[in-house]
Amino acid sequence: MFARLEKITGIATSCLLFLLMLLTFVDVFGRNVLNHPLTGASEVTELMLAGIIFLMLPQVAFRQKHIVIDLIDAITSPVLRGIMNVAAALLSAAMFFLIGWQIYILGQKAIGYADATPSLHIPVGPILYLLALLAIVNGIAFLLTIPKAFEIPEPKSETEELSFTV
Prior knowledge:
About 65% of the residues lie in helices and about 0% in strands.
């Protein structure tokens, strides 16, 4: 189930990133060559970036590929590291549930005010609802990492690359 969801979000993120690249190219070309920028490009860029980030956050959380600073891991026991991993997962989940709740409230206000982007008049409320849902999914992804908290991670090489499969 999670593999299918991961594949769908990976494809959606890849498509958004490709569209963002095309949009930026057309906007820069229009601005520098034709002396006429693409109307609303900055609005669509902001929306696409929010979509890309919030679509990829659950995958990063579940795979535990987020940035980690391990200052005291070398001097702590595996049990203490597991406890710290559980505490970090619970705190991260709580923060993303809070973020989701606040974005949902913001979405309700945007719907109430019929808030839209300035140039293209894209309604903001539904987008905020989607971001709230994705923030809550990210909180759930952090909770799903708790059973793996006491696993000993494999040693990482110096040249390990970040990779996302589609």
